[in-house]
Write a structure and sequence with these properties.
alpha+beta, elongated
């Protein structure tokens, strides 16, 4: 399952790594991270992380770890993959 989470962590050295490390503790694999220092709320910066996790029951464990590390979870949910498709229409077509 692909998961996307929007997290807020205190703007201190080492907090980015500290907030991403628990994903590996639940056998998750990070796909992408956006670290937005421009979006500061209550002296916390926004981290948008997308990761893959095989066992969805591990998400509760991950949430508990983040809570113990003072990481605020703004949003968390599954990611749906989309695929681009191209079509070629053959025949006579009218504008109407």
């Amino acid at each position: 399952m692909m998961v996307n989470a929007q997290l807020y962590v205190k703007d201190l050295p080492g907090r980015l790594v500290e907030s991403l490390e628990p994903i590996s503790l639940v056998n998750g694999n990070i796909v992408g991270v956006v670290h937005d220092r421009e979006q500061i709320v209550n002296q916390r910066i926004c981290i948008d992380v997308t990761f893959e996790i095989k066992d969805t029951s591990e998400l509760d464990k991950l949430k508990a770890i983040w809570k113990s590390k003072d990481v605020l979870i703004a949003k968390i949910g599954s990611v749906y993959k989309t695929h681009t498709m191209e079509y070629m229409l053959v025949g006579k077509f009218k504008a109407s």
